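Why show two proteins at once? Because comparison is the fastest way to build intuition. When a single record is shown, students tend to memorize it. When two are placed side by side, the eye starts asking what differs. So, the first record is below.
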Amino acid sequence: MKYDLLHTEIYQTPCPECKAISFPITQENLSNYFHKIKIKCPKCETNLDWWALLLRHFEWDVPSYTYAIVGGFTTSLRIFMKPNEIFNLDLEQIGIPKQSKILQTSYTPNGTGLFPVELHGNTPPRHYIPNIINLYGRPFGETAEETPVAIQINWAEKSDDNQIWENLINAVESFTLKDYNGCVIPSNVSVESTLNNIMTRYFSEFAAKDRVEDFLSSGATYSYQLNILLPLIAHYNNFPKIPDFIRGNLNRLRAYRNSLAHTGKTEKQIDKKTASELVCSASFALSYLNLLEEKMSKN
């Protein structure tokens, strides 16, 4: 397998004004946002609104930027193909772990001679990208002995202890496929499950676990946890409240989830703008809950 220019990264978010500097999507920057610590571009001194910065990623229709919000990696490389030959691309050999979830691939010829065509068996998979990809060099344009092809692969790590985060990755995957209804349930599950786990651990300090679980399932259900208990716990841990507009979006998300779960449809069609706000809010909420849990552990 002949290739070069191999590198793997998580796309950063560029300054909206000068475009010259990009900023990593990290827990530290998200923490600064929740604590209302101002972030400025060191070149043009533009004040950076972290919410506005990341919401743009959903508007761009570039999967590498959209997946970056949930920790999705982008691996870029250039291979060299010959017409009428098959190139075997083994993703594990270029550093993508075998258990990874492959989210999206693209193949772009950097010259004439051929166009890469992805081969499959007589039953092509529709919702799964394998770890070994066979590319056929279909002759195209002017004849060339060898043609460089730029490849970009978006992927996410999988492990036994990040299944909640995988729900959010699934939501972003649905977004990139323009299945906006498909974003709702996994986004809601990721936040609701995380919040419920935090509440269970917190209140288990004061009552038996079975009583706490009964309290959270039949009494203080998700809406009460989100709108009453969460601000209360944040206050007693000297942690900022989750921004009201994000909490409002999570309530909207919960309403859409209930409609889909109970009737199979929503009263109003979910468009791209709405889906962007809902999925982005879920992403911010997960980061917020992780930061709050860290603070609770220190306390």
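Second record. Ask yourself what differs from the first in the token line.
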Amino acid sequence: MSAPASDDPLLIGARRFHSRLLTGTGKFKDLEETRLASAAAGSEIVTFAVRRMNLGQDPTQPSLLDALPPERYTLLPNTAGCYDAAAAVRTCQLARELLDGHTLVKLEVLGDARTLYPNVSETLDAAEQLVREGFEVMVYTSDDPIIAKRLEEIGCIAVMPLAAPIGSGLGIQNRYTLLEIIENSKVPVIVDAGVGTASDATIAMELGCDGVLMNTAIAGARDPILMARAMRAAVQAGRDAFRAGRIPRKRCASASSPEEGLLG
């Protein structure tokens, strides 16, 4: 008898999570919808853009901390909108101040405003500095297995390769490079970007990814709360299928009820 899903935690650094679906906070119509979608997704890790979200800096505006209380969710500040290492490092330092010493961050350094593809060289520089400063770095990166391994060697606690451009909804376009990253990684591999619907999330998990992070696929859906629920089920189904082990692919049929050993 295999272990139940509750005995299959996602381990990120020293932290332990039951949900393998990470969600974002952008593009929802308001914080109430963000709260409802996060709950429907069952997510325990929720990421937000430090430069765009009110954490209490402006007492006249709604605060993310009211919608997603830190005692319930692990908040993952990210460096969205940063295009060089220096800006990304400053943003993480700001998040640490705003969140009373919080060190878990999602690093993303962009190289192109149209595709939001990562600037790999600046990402490497920022990762090295942040790790030196004691940050626990989860890092958005390309699907290059060599770069993913280098980020792991630097000390990042999770690598987060894109499956397709951010917000594109194109699904898993690079399964072979993702497999190469997964098979050679000793830290969690979390698909970040490109998921469009539930089947995409399932495929990522069936490949062996440790988790999936998504925002646009949920927030941009006609019914974000329902889509969040669908993504929750999809991620769990994909993980269960990966653990169960699929049958091999064959070119010819194999009878479900073989003729050998028939009575009479």
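One difference worth noting in the second protein: The radius of gyration is 20 Å.
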